[in-house]
Amino acid sequence: MDSTSTKATVIFDKFRDNHSPEYTLEVIHEVYFPFFDCKGEVVAETNLQLDRLSKIILAFLSPQSETHASLCGFLGIDEDSFILSHLHYLIKEGFIAEQFAPHSYHLTLAGRQFLIGISESRTMQQVAFLFQYNALLRTFFDPDFPIDYELSAAKKTNFKGYRMLQTNKIEPNGHKTIPHKQRPKIEQEDRAAFATWFNSRFPNHQFYDLDNEAPKSHTRSVSFVVLEFRDENNSKKYEVRRHEKTVTGASQYELEDAMTKAFAKFMVENPRFLEPSQRFREIGNTLPPLVDVNDLRQRFSTAAKRENL
Amino acid sequence: MNNYNLGFQTLKRLDTWSEDFFLDLVEDATGNMFQMLSIRVEPALLPLMERTFRDEIQPLLKRQVDGILLPTNAALQKEECTMRIFYPHDEDCTSVEEKNVNIGAWIPLAKALSELKKKNQYGFYFAPETLEAKGSEIRLRFIGLLALMRRIGICKANNLSPDLIESTEVARLQDDIWAFGNLMTKLTLGPIPDDIVSKACASKRSDRYATWLELINDLEMQEKSTSAKTLEPTEETALKRMLKVIVHPDFTASFKPMLQEMNSECHYLPHPELSNSKKQIWGYFHTSNHSAPAFLDMDNNLLFLDWKQHRGREKQIPSLAILLDCRFSCSNSSTIRLFPFMEQMRQHAIAKTDIGSNSLSKGAKDKKSTLEKWKTMPEKEKEFIEEEALKLEYVERRQSANNKENVVFQLAEHNKKYPWDKIKRLKYDGVGLTVNDSYLGIIQDYHPTERHITLRDVKLELEEIPEKGELIQDVKQEVSQFKKQVEACTKFEKGDILNPELTAYLATPEMIPTPPRLVINHDAFEAGIVNQRLKSDATQLETVKEAIHRQPLFLVQGPPGTGKTTVIVEMIQQILKRQPDARILVTSQSNLAVDNVLERLPETILFMRLAATEDRVGEKLKAHSYESKLKEWVHSTRKRSNDWLDQALSGNKDKMKPLVRLYHKLFQLQSDKDPAASFAKELLKPTWPAYYRENLFKNTGKFDAIQRVFEKEIGVQKLRLLSLQKEWESFLDNSLGEEKDARTSKLRDGSEFIGLQFAYLKSVSVVGATCIHIASMKYGRVNFKFDYVIMDESSKASPAEALVPINMGRNIILIGDHKQLPPVVTREEAVKQKVKDKLEDNGLDVDKEFGESMFEKIIATIESVPEQAQNFRMLDIQYRMPRQIGSIISKYFYEGKLENPDPVRVPGYDKSKSHELTLAKETSMVFLSTSREENPFDNGDKFARANRCNVAKIKEALEWLDNAYLNNLQRKNEKGEPAPFTIGIIAGYRGQVNMLQREISLTKYRNFVTQDDKGEDVSLIRINTVDKFQGAEEDIIIYDVVKSNRGSDTIGFLSDYRRVNVALSRVKRLLLVVGDSEYLLKRATLPNDERFPEFKLKMIAEEFQNQGLIIHTLNELMPIPSLTSSH
């Protein structure tokens, strides 16, 4: 028996009675579920950090008021140099006050506080960030954490992460691929969820707005094992379980509850998805499923007969 | 009426806040009206005004933010302590005080302010006089001026947040929110809910709305509840928006039955080109049985139907149409106060384009298809390169036994053969390979028999490389230029460019409005011209004047030798004279054309030449490269800073100077293991006075003690300055370092931090770069914004290539000549086929469709719409060629419009164009025919066409010239500088150029050989193709026709007169055409190509014949004794 069949045997043995006696495990599929790797830009509020140039200018002005000419002299720049845009920023932030006769600057209280790192000043910043998106559940996704959040702390800790594969580079090997229909778009109603998610990822930033509602996205896939159970009326039930191919250390084929529910819904909308001849936009659509359990049964019974003999 | 030096005429005073702060209505030279805000300050406040101008107003120029009136132009006049800011004038706008503003109207404004806040822009003056209304929209104007207005006392206290009244406190976002809430309370029709007012206008900043978004949410909730109350919904439509449908009173009765149909299902196909905002949308409505043009006003929940033009059922509802999930009721238009407004909107939209709505939709369609076409070629070129890239499937990878940094890939066993020759070439060229888009390394070795390939210094760990996979040739570099072009087209299409107005001008020039007449004082302009030579050429002068006044697009056709570069240099000087802080990009598709302009710029203009590598830049410009200029600036800044500090620390006391220097030394020694010991060692050097080691630093064993001596002698404060200056020096030095270091040297530029090196680059007045290089990733963070983009040789750039720099410009000046070489269209048949497939046109003539530049397309439009000619000038006096040749070029290529210089205005011209030989016949051009030679025919190879007979004839000619110009190397110009004559040999075919280069030993002709600085021979003779000669000129040109056939046949690509024009017009003194005259005159025919109906080369050959200028041996021209005897 080849390695695929061995795996299938393990799965079959393990799960064949999961829904008995009404349902029997009929087919074990390998299905690639749709995910996205996204890159977006968020406008977020954050504390102003003391940068090198601000430090130099503020420190120069800290003991006493200085004229514009001496500040420029100290820096070695022209009195209308492009460097002075930075001075404008410090003035607008209220760190420096400007006098005009003669033209001079002095540090404000806020400026002193900023210089010693106790400023409360906030600024808007564009933050480039990467995130993943589960296209079936239509939720943000962190490959380092299990999709089902109602798991024990220990289970969460032991989880080692999903591996997302570049969809267009997946070799055809008999699996099915759920097509990536809609690219992630963060709609108005998702904002609150996104903001919470963003703030948890960037604790020093406060989400303000998205720079673009449709971030750049690249299709990714995660392979799961889908168990297909049927009753005598040919009504079907599915279970989605982790696959060691794309979930590190998933040799126990743990159940994915949320994905199971979402997949069931998907099957209602796409009842012919798992049929071998059904042409979805997946790779390898004409190849057979991972293993047909009937075929497995046949082999088992032959082996059993042989043993009896 | 005052005459302002920017060329604006004041029409009337619109508003006066004080005698130093007022708003005028002004008109520019083309008749466009603007509102000009003039602000004058006392001299002491000039720094504040300068800062406001540079950091607040300039970044706003020509930007577009809905809800905010942004300036189109601004000027600072330091001598007068005056700033003038120009805003677009819209006659439909009214003052807000006279209006009763709906609460909903504040929402777009708040959203606009929220957008600005995202870029850290806040601190505005909210007052009735800084608002204007257009229809139901309100707009904030004069943003960026609050600090200045507060300082000069323009702001009224009752419009300012309490924190800013009689205080020097800087304005915060919460001050804006207070002022916004305050204004909303004053101007809104009906009450604003108390909770919104109290939160916006809370006395403490911290109690007010924290962000605009919070305020927007509350306002939207309020608006929804107000609309819901007025709708009186039924149960099933409770959640639906109600739209009132308005039709003309004449059609109300016939329309009413339609309502039921609309309420069952109604779709709307929006027309974005005709819609001025997301809430006022022109389009088509569709029901199951009807469709008609419509206008949807979401602000007022109105749907206006042009029922007169209604059509029956469409075959199908367009796929882009959206479902209007609304409840419809009918209303007679006479009861709707917005009817005139909408009609006005419609008229305005139509008038704006001067054509009807059908044409408008055609325009939008044309624009889309034009851009689709422009984008297709680079897209397919890129695709082709990627497909052609080497791909090798491997089945195993392992570390090399000899070197662990190298990885050996075992290739899969295939039936097909591996392209080992290609692999060999890639190894030789040092091309890298990738796997899964990750770069691996270059080829170290390969073994065809064992089928493995070794990559060296691989950038990935072995584990990161898939066990099996595909190695792909790294083509990032090759495809990058095409990628940039595709990106440029996409941005242009979306209008995501610096000046969106340009999209119509460039993609659909036939749709642009007729430009108005330019009214400008010509005498005053002429008096301010820098290059006095322009005064003798009216067209050059006019061209400069028009180009800098006509915005946003101007075209200049510059036939050969008409002084394009002179005109461009003058344009740059005039722009900077009017607008000293203007940023200008000089660009072209070739490096040479960029260099030509920059080399002639005066040193007083700060310019920089950007190029991928230094070898692409002319020798004279190397000192102006990005790297050199930045280095120079950093060094001079450091030096000035050091000098200042030296002076500040030691005053006039010389004795302090060595001590300061010694302190610098101590600073450097700080990082040593034992700095005190190193310092003691340093003191032993004779550089330092003995007094230091014997007295001052005696017994200072520890570092702290040394430090204390310095503190005592120099002073703590001064030492602090020294260490601060060290930090500044390090900041400057880091900007020159590797990317990682440079990232630490950042400064604030508007709303974001950028690297010092980029800030410096942005501050340069003139930047020169090729169309593609300006979009290099190297400057990815610069976000270039140019006031002017001047593109030379724009007729040679493909539209997609041209769009790359155009997207970065506010105003564009295109200079080119569509009668010279066009853009290069791909030579790959596969790419052409891909283009045909994409455009679904298999009969497409790719060369014709893609061989047209944007410049030519616009010129063609201008030629068909004479009124638009005002956006175009042709330079019509040539200064390069002798009159005889100039006249022929003009007659055959420029319909006689190109003139020779007036002998009165340019005395001595003919002498300056003389070849200085006494020929048997007075002429500057000769056809040296090969017809009587034994075998004058070319080799017939269409891939490498060459003609050995012509090569021999050209060698003869070179020998003849070498003998004729015996004193060539001693020749001097009017200024007494060495000016030997040069020779250019131009052949139309690459095969012939190769043969000429192979068979002619250039250094053999000693009178055309000089020496360079190293004493090495440099020939004054160049051989190349026509394409390589465009933009160049030589004293003597030998044009090799190459093509000749025994029988009658088609002339091939020499039918393209543009190539002939370029070849013949490179000459400054003497033109020799070499070829089979009989073939040209009798046997050659034109191919069947409607683009070139006239056989210009033949016509020119006939001209030579008619003038008796066809010769067969050079002796016929002028027997040279030495040559005669040798023959």
Characterise the protein shown here.
The complex is a heterodimer of chains A (309) and B (1127). Chain A has 309 residues and is α+β, with helices and mostly antiparallel strands. Chain A has helices at 3-15, 52-61, 68-75, 84-92, 109-115, 153-158, 191-201, 257-269, 293-308; strands at 24-47, 66-67, 96-100, 103-107, 122-134, 139-141, 165-166, 176-177, 205-210, 216-230, 236-242, 291-292. Chain A is rod-shaped and about 95 Å long. With 1127 residues, chain B is α/β, with parallel strands linked by helices. Chain B is built from 38 helices and 41 strands. Chain B has a seven-stranded mixed β-sheet with strand order 15-11-12-13-14-10-16, covered by helices on one side. In chain B, strands 25-28-24-29-30-23-31 form a seven-stranded parallel β-sheet, sandwiched between helices. In chain B, strand 2 (8-18) and strand 3 form a beta hairpin. Chain B is globular and about 105 Å long. At the A-B interface, helix 2, helix 3, helix 4, strand 3 and strand 5 of A face helix 1, helix 2, helix 18, helix 23 and strand 26 of B.
* Tally of alpha and pi helices of chain B: 38
Rg of chain A (CA only): 30 Å
Largest interface summary: A-B, 43 and 54 residues
**Main sheet makeup of chain B:** 7 strands, mixed
Number-wise, the strands of chain B total 41
The main β sheet of chain A shows up as:
9 strands, mixed
> Regarding quaternary structure, how should these chains be classified?
heterodimer
Q: How big a fraction of the residues of chain B is strand?
A: 15-25%
Strand order of the largest sheet of chain B: 15-11-12-13-14-10-16
Total number of strands of chain A: 12
Shape of chain A: rod-shaped
Helix content of chain B: 25-40%
Low-confidence stretches of chain A are 277-293, 303-309
